[in-house]
Amino acid sequence: MQQRSGSLVEWLVPLAFIVCAGWLAWHLPAFILDFLPPQDPSQFDKLSALFKRNDVTPDMPGLFGGFADIFDWLALLLLPVTLVAGVLTVRRAPMEFEAWGPLDRLSVFVGRVTMMLIVVLCCVMLYEVFVRYVLNAATLWANELSLWLAGFVFLCAGLYAMQQRSHIRIFLLYDMLPRSLQRVCDTISTVLIVTFAFFLVYGGYGEALDKLYRWETFGTAFDPPIPATIKPMVLVVVVLVAVQAIINLVSDWNAEAVIHTAADDIDAEELEALKRQVGNN
């Protein structure tokens, strides 16, 4: 895996992915109405009224005689394109975990998307502070949008942390074990993660699908579809975390035993870069 080159593409692609995913998340009822319309007339009318109220481009006619317009279809087509482009162009930063494989690229790209989401979240909050306290014109959407974005940040960061081996671990006893027993501990941990993911998906699939199909919203003035999107996303991310845990187990199986110390939190390359900057000043 190549190290980060600092290319602008590395950040523009995640941003483009966020734009496409955000557009689809807001206009997904159009595709539900086109391909899986509710059989209950009242539910159909409710969903169509909700879509028409929130449609960003209400004057655009739907393609193929449906609800989804050209922008909705364009976002749907560009989403996998930006995903593949992001996975192929992502590079390792100096401070990131060194042992990368081709299967780790998706998790690292999700990490880049998470970083860009944090930037977007900060911009939303700064905008709300400015208009509220400077212009005295508070928005109705900033708080709920911040909650919505923060939910995705929390979920996606968990997948990235799993790939980076950054979740909290207690090494006091682990480091004292021989490598063979460490592999046993790693296997038990992975089995527990996969088991948890299985039962969570098994027990929550029906509810998540129901919230998505009914397009359950937050019930506020802005009324974002937080329940309809976050609940299914929880299941998707948990499955990806379980898959990443298996990938980590396989890739670390033949690794040498590592004694963890407080110095592990210090990135040598970043420290040297800081020293050079201080020396130049």
TrEMBL record:
Keywords: Cell inner membrane, Cell membrane, Membrane, Transmembrane, Transmembrane helix, Transport. GO terms for cellular component: plasma membrane. Residues 121-253 form the Tripartite ATP-independent periplasmic transporters DctQ component domain. The keyword Cell inner membrane applies. It comes from the Bacteria. Pfam families: DctQ. It is found in: Cell inner membrane. Its main location: membrane. It is a multi-pass membrane protein. The chain crosses the membrane at residues 12-32, 70-88, 109-133, 145-163, 184-205, 232-250. GO terms for molecular function: transmembrane transporter activity. Part of the tripartite ATP-independent periplasmic (TRAP) transport system. The complex comprises the extracytoplasmic solute receptor protein and the two transmembrane proteins. Belongs to the TRAP transporter small permease family. This is TRAP transporter small permease protein. It comes from Ruegeria sp. PrR005.
